[in-house]
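Lay summary

Proteins are chains of building blocks that fold into shapes. Our project writes down both the chain and a compact code for its shape. Here are two examples, one after the other.
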Amino acid sequence: MTQASPTNAALAARDLQHIWHPCTQMHDHERVPMVPIVRGEGPWLIDADGRRYLDGISSWWTNLFGHANPRIAAGLAEQAKTLEHVIFAGFTHPVAIELAEQLVRITPPGLEKVFFADNGSAAVEVALKMSFHYWLNQGHGEKTRFIALTGSYHGETLGALSVSDVALYRKTYAPLLLTPILAPSPDAYEGEPGESPEQTAARRLEAMRDLLERHAGETCAVIVEPLVQCAGGMRMYHPSYLSGLRALCDRYDVHLIADEIAVGFGRTGTMFACEQAGIAPDFLCLSKGLTGGTLPLSAVLTTPRVYEAFYAEYNAGKAFLHSHSYTGNPLACRAALETLAIFRDEPVLERNRGLAAHLARQLEPLRDHPHVADVRQHGMIAAVELVADKSTRRPFPAEERRGLHVYLHGLQNGALLRPLGNIIYFMPPYVVNEGDIDHLVRVAREGIALAVKNGA
């Protein structure tokens, strides 16, 4: 006699007995359902009761080629039979070597050294420490600060949070954080009336120039999310800002850190967002899609110039001081290699361009919605900004949680849409089809109708 499979209700009850979930006020689950997922198929997630949800946000922007992707799963199974993990200090293994070689081959030119870590926040920590330590080794210990953009988000470990501009986090953890120098974001939504995104970028570059003029002597690096400030509200800007910023960093002798953790691997229409500006940063942070959303892994790529500042006799005391137990984990590296193989063997970016164009067409009618102030898109990332007053762009009060209506309506209608406050966004896996996109947009439009009518 076989035991019955657990239901959603049973699994949710067990979960809430012991698990504390991220980015969650656990009290919400007295009325917001906990959704136990037991299986994934391509862009779909299936819960314990058999309901299906189209993953419109790629499970926090990680999944590229669908859940339970057979090619990645087969590679992992093969790797698990050979080597699951080995210390990465003084030891190495073939899959990490091959992954580093391939990353150097496909990333912007000049990035020839690869440092592995295990998640996006850790990658940012590595880049921040490496930049500071570079200047220290060069005899410039006075360089201790970082410049970040307003509205930025780079992770939730203390260093990454220190260069993020999220008011709630900074208010709560301020005594523990470094204080960054904040430059105004080139966010096109904040442009002056009649100003093009390129003109907004140029104006904000002047503000960055002024900051560097005053603070370059104490600044290690400028850190940005190229083209899209994701967690800050899917704020998007013109590529010319990146090319101008690269020139400013060179002029004032500070590093440029490109956080492509969320926007890398095809999300913005090119393999890496920096390509659209024709630049290479001094540090490139990668994670999320690196393994196709299968296992935690991150990488920081940097230049020979940076590497050589640490290369010395042991007693010189110049070695970089950072490690993780699971650095270069073979299973995660194998998942990454299989992910890169899919990019190599299939016309992923070409197909994405078609899907992105279809998504743009489906979202176009929302531009005329009386409570939509903006519809914006870079490749396979699109966002809809809900406001209380379209003419003034006055937002809905945050405490009304209008976006929650869209989320709940999505769950009831087979779609995972998890808004950022009052910003409804779409970042689906690359294996969706046009019908899937139609479904996501239809459910979102219905949810928006409910959200603007009712407060949560």
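And here is the second example, written the same way.
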Amino acid sequence: MFDGLDALLLARIQFGFTVSFHFIFPAFSIGLASYLMVLEGLWLKTGRDIYLDLFRYWVKIFAIAFAMGVVSGIVMSYQFGTNWSVFSTKAGPVIGPLMAYEVLTAFFLEAGFLGVMLFGMSKVGKGLHFAATCMVALGTFISAFWILSVNSWMQTPTGFEMSPDGRFLPGESWLAIIFNPSFPYRLVHTVIAAYLTTAFVVGAVGAWHLLRDRANLHARKMFSMAMWMAAIVAPIQIFAGDMHGLNTLEHQPAKVMAMEGHYESHPDGAPLILFGIPNSAEKRIDYAVEVPKASSLILKHDLNAPLAGLDTIPDDREPPVPVIFWSFRVMVGIGFAMLGLGLWSLVARMRKRLYDWSWLHRAAVLMGPSGFVAVIAGWITTEVGRQPYTVYGHMLTAQSASPLAAPAVAASLIAFVIVYFAVFGAGAWYILHLMHKPAGPHESEPEHMPVRTAGITPAPAIATGAE
């Protein structure tokens, strides 16, 4: 029944599906690990138990999100050998060591200290426990560093040489590969996005409980911290996104043309198309709502600056405009909505109504999942905008796939969809269940402590004489 389908398209859909699920969890755990570090640091500095209570409340949620991120990430690694074996063979000498560095640094760091962070509060000193929390937070950042370096190299490949058999080989300097032209911008933009994603989840949970009980001190504290993050960091993210866009225009102009919906070149200033319906067949944006010359002002800082369009790109090298056009607008729209909520919270804070404005709290609850939608939309813009290349300008996606038949890819795709929705759906439901419970004083440590398998300390039952 799948013989008429395109194996390459199915492989792309499968990779997009699995990486979208995976991306949700690191986007949350990167920010949440840093939030936990801040909470524990504030507790140690001030001695206020409210910070310890919030730490214990969120560390349980972090443990589940982290575990689901690890599991979904393992699946991603296998896909390089199943659906994309040709890409792995040709690009492996460059991307393989970078991904190995991620395991040897970030994963070992996280795995080594995660147990102490989760279960060691009552077993080690405060300083050592805080150090473990800091190491876990650092590990999540280092993991993002290496993975984004790999992805950025695929977007803006530098520092490599081509072997006679068509493989990418490291050049004279690994630094040129790691710190490729788009990497610093992508790293900053993505990590800030993870922090904002976490902030809006924390803010939504705090707002939810404020709607039920405005006197809940723990809900007030987490909502206040989240809104400070939104008000301060959202403008920084918009600026970082603008810088990333300018870098993309320099190195991947076709992607920006698709993002802007510029099918035609504009020699005297390009309009900013706010909305419209991309018509790839006719090479135009139907029903366009646009601001004259604003795109040139944003991208070139000159109203009359010329901007090339997709009419300068061969048809078989154009990225799919409709997908990129809309995913980019979803990402930008959510970014400005985050900024709006942050500014709204500042007004409420100035009027001493931060914990009393129910409509602000309802808006915060509504914006709770917005960070996840924004990071997925941003990922779609980045990855689909790179098409038709796997390694931009050097290796086509059609040249990267494994020689598999469509039925085989379709069968595995269906299996992934069923298993992912079952497993990760259950995990997401349990996280929401934990969030539904209000944080309170004297939160307990995570339950189900690990069984002791070494050491001389007797088990509790033996120590108490119980049978």
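What can we say about the second shape? Residues 16-265+308-463 form one domain.
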